[in-house]
Amino acid sequence: MTNVIIKFSRFTFIIKDYLRLLLNWAFGSGCCIVCGKETVYGDICKKCRQELLLKAKETSSLERCSVCGKILLSENNICMDCRKERIIFSCDKVFSIFPYRLWAKNLMFQWKMLERRGLSPFIAMLCSNSIKTQFGTECHFIVPVPPRNG
Protein backbone atom coordinates (compact mmCIF):
# COMPACT_ATOMS: atom_id res chain seq x y z
CA MET A 1 0.00 0.00 0.00
CA THR A 2 2.81 2.43 0.87
CA ASN A 3 4.46 1.68 -2.50
CA VAL A 4 1.31 2.84 -4.29
CA ILE A 5 1.20 6.03 -2.21
CA ILE A 6 4.86 6.77 -2.92
CA LYS A 7 4.42 6.21 -6.66
CA PHE A 8 1.31 8.39 -6.70
CA SER A 9 3.08 11.20 -4.82
CA ARG A 10 6.02 11.01 -7.28
CA PHE A 11 3.57 11.17 -10.16
CA THR A 12 1.82 14.25 -8.74
CA PHE A 13 5.22 15.81 -8.04
CA ILE A 14 6.23 15.38 -11.70
CA ILE A 15 2.88 16.71 -12.94
CA LYS A 16 3.17 19.80 -10.71
CA ASP A 17 6.70 20.44 -11.99
CA TYR A 18 5.58 20.28 -15.64
CA LEU A 19 2.57 22.49 -14.91
CA ARG A 20 4.86 25.05 -13.26
CA LEU A 21 7.11 25.04 -16.33
CA LEU A 22 4.10 25.38 -18.64
CA LEU A 23 2.75 28.36 -16.69
CA ASN A 24 6.17 30.04 -16.71
CA TRP A 25 6.37 29.57 -20.44
CA ALA A 26 2.81 30.81 -21.07
CA PHE A 27 2.69 33.84 -18.75
CA GLY A 28 6.19 35.16 -18.80
CA SER A 29 9.63 34.18 -17.90
CA GLY A 30 11.91 35.01 -15.05
CA CYS A 31 15.61 35.24 -14.44
CA CYS A 32 17.82 32.29 -13.68
CA ILE A 33 19.07 32.40 -10.07
CA VAL A 34 22.45 30.96 -11.08
CA CYS A 35 23.43 32.90 -14.22
CA GLY A 36 20.89 35.76 -14.28
CA LYS A 37 19.76 35.14 -17.87
CA GLU A 38 16.10 35.10 -18.85
CA THR A 39 14.46 31.69 -18.66
CA VAL A 40 11.12 30.00 -19.16
CA TYR A 41 12.21 26.96 -17.12
CA GLY A 42 11.26 28.44 -13.77
CA ASP A 43 13.94 29.68 -11.40
CA ILE A 44 16.89 27.95 -13.09
CA CYS A 45 17.52 27.91 -16.84
CA LYS A 46 17.94 24.65 -18.76
CA LYS A 47 21.69 25.14 -19.29
CA CYS A 48 22.33 25.77 -15.57
CA ARG A 49 20.15 22.79 -14.59
CA GLN A 50 22.25 20.50 -16.77
CA GLU A 51 25.52 21.98 -15.49
CA LEU A 52 24.45 21.67 -11.85
CA LEU A 53 23.40 18.04 -12.32
CA LEU A 54 26.77 17.30 -13.95
CA LYS A 55 28.71 19.09 -11.18
CA ALA A 56 26.74 17.24 -8.51
CA LYS A 57 27.58 13.93 -10.17
CA GLU A 58 31.27 14.85 -10.39
CA THR A 59 31.59 16.14 -6.81
CA SER A 60 29.71 13.22 -5.24
CA SER A 61 32.51 10.84 -6.23
CA LEU A 62 35.36 12.97 -4.79
CA GLU A 63 37.09 12.07 -1.53
CA ARG A 64 35.66 13.95 1.46
CA CYS A 65 36.51 14.73 5.06
CA SER A 66 35.11 12.01 7.30
CA VAL A 67 34.01 14.63 9.88
CA CYS A 68 32.58 17.65 8.05
CA GLY A 69 32.12 16.38 4.48
CA LYS A 70 34.31 19.00 2.76
CA ILE A 71 35.99 17.93 -0.45
CA LEU A 72 39.58 16.99 0.35
CA LEU A 73 42.36 18.54 -1.69
CA SER A 74 45.52 16.85 -0.41
CA GLU A 75 44.61 15.75 3.10
CA ASN A 76 44.04 12.18 4.22
CA ASN A 77 40.59 11.38 5.63
CA ILE A 78 40.23 14.57 7.77
CA CYS A 79 40.52 18.15 6.49
CA MET A 80 42.86 20.70 8.07
CA ASP A 81 39.98 22.66 9.65
CA CYS A 82 38.70 19.59 11.50
CA ARG A 83 42.24 18.72 12.62
CA LYS A 84 42.63 22.18 14.17
CA GLU A 85 39.20 22.41 15.81
CA ARG A 86 36.52 19.78 15.49
CA ILE A 87 33.02 21.32 15.50
CA ILE A 88 30.90 18.32 14.51
CA PHE A 89 30.51 15.58 17.12
CA SER A 90 26.95 14.30 17.12
CA CYS A 91 26.53 12.65 13.74
CA ASP A 92 28.01 9.79 11.76
CA LYS A 93 28.69 11.56 8.48
CA VAL A 94 28.13 14.90 6.79
CA PHE A 95 27.75 15.13 3.03
CA SER A 96 27.08 18.27 1.02
CA ILE A 97 26.29 18.25 -2.67
CA PHE A 98 28.24 21.45 -3.39
CA PRO A 99 30.64 23.64 -1.44
CA TYR A 100 28.58 26.36 0.24
CA ARG A 101 29.85 29.38 -1.71
CA LEU A 102 28.98 31.59 -4.65
CA TRP A 103 26.01 30.34 -6.69
CA ALA A 104 25.33 27.34 -4.41
CA LYS A 105 25.08 29.64 -1.40
CA ASN A 106 22.73 31.92 -3.34
CA LEU A 107 20.63 28.96 -4.47
CA MET A 108 20.23 27.67 -0.89
CA PHE A 109 19.48 31.18 0.39
CA GLN A 110 16.75 31.64 -2.22
CA TRP A 111 15.22 28.26 -1.35
CA LYS A 112 15.50 28.32 2.44
CA MET A 113 15.25 31.97 3.45
CA LEU A 114 13.28 33.58 0.63
CA GLU A 115 11.03 30.50 0.36
CA ARG A 116 11.30 30.07 -3.41
CA ARG A 117 9.66 26.67 -3.29
CA GLY A 118 9.67 26.40 -7.08
CA LEU A 119 13.28 25.25 -6.61
CA SER A 120 12.16 22.23 -4.56
CA PRO A 121 11.75 19.74 -7.45
CA PHE A 122 15.21 20.54 -8.79
CA ILE A 123 16.88 20.43 -5.37
CA ALA A 124 15.13 17.13 -4.65
CA MET A 125 16.49 15.72 -7.92
CA LEU A 126 20.02 16.91 -7.04
CA CYS A 127 19.78 15.34 -3.58
CA SER A 128 18.36 12.08 -4.86
CA ASN A 129 21.05 11.66 -7.52
CA SER A 130 23.87 12.53 -5.11
CA ILE A 131 22.59 10.24 -2.34
CA LYS A 132 22.30 7.32 -4.75
CA THR A 133 25.83 7.95 -6.04
CA GLN A 134 27.44 8.48 -2.63
CA PHE A 135 25.59 6.02 -0.41
CA GLY A 136 23.69 3.60 -2.65
CA THR A 137 21.14 1.83 -0.44
CA GLU A 138 23.16 2.22 2.78
CA CYS A 139 21.71 5.64 3.67
CA HIS A 140 19.27 5.40 6.57
CA PHE A 141 18.58 8.98 7.71
CA ILE A 142 18.80 12.33 6.01
CA VAL A 143 18.63 15.48 8.10
CA PRO A 144 18.58 18.94 6.50
CA VAL A 145 20.92 21.53 7.92
CA PRO A 146 19.03 24.32 9.71
CA PRO A 147 19.72 27.89 8.50
CA ARG A 148 20.92 29.11 11.94
CA ASN A 149 22.66 27.57 14.95
CA GLY A 150 19.63 28.09 17.22
How would you sum up this structure in a few lines?
This protein has helices spanning 2-27, 46-60, 80-84, 102-112, 120-135; strands at 30-31, 38-39.
Strand-helix topology:
Blueprint: H1 2-27, E1 30-31, E2 38-39, H2 46-60, H3 80-84, H4 102-112, H5 120-135
Antiparallel strand pairs: 1-2
Helix pairs in contact: 2-5
Give the tags.
globular; 150 residues
Task: Characterise this structure.
With 150 residues, the chain is mostly helical. Helices cover 49% and strands 3% of the residues. It has five helices and two strands, in the order H-E-E-H-H-H-H. The protein has a two-stranded antiparallel ribbon. Helix 2 runs parallel beside helix 5. The chain is globular. The model has no long low-confidence stretch (mean pLDDT 76).
